[in-house]
Amino acid sequence: PSIPHHPPSFPFPAPRSVLVACGPFTPSDSAAFEPLRDLLDVVARDRPDLCILFGPFLDAKHEQVEGCQLLSPFPDVLRLCLRTIVEGTRSSGSQLVLVPSLRDVSHPPVYPQPPFSLPDLPKEDRARVLLVPDPCTLDID
Length: 141
Hints:
- One of its GO terms (biological process) is DNA replication initiation.
- By secondary structure, the chain is an alpha/beta fold.
- 24% of the residues lie in helices and 13% in strands.
């Protein structure tokens, strides 16, 4: 069924900037997150009001994942990636939305997908970081 549309009850005080990006955030020949670091540089420079990132964050189809060539367990690499994103967007003040993918190697491959679990999310980031399931509906303002 279609989702009912509810127009905002008040006008936005100013235009909103939204940055949307979709993974994977690694090159195909390396498990280094250079594209992710480049994206975080853009977030720091442009300071969007909202940053929505879709996985996969650690792609199950990556050749080093498929060949079990990573030096750390998959959950540790994913946690490091998500922590890098949270810390890398902190100075911009952007609201951050993280959406999992069925191809995230250490996240349940069921549909609908539960949101990521970040129990060690710093207190100062809890108000600006939103972990959502896939699929989800976002109401911006």
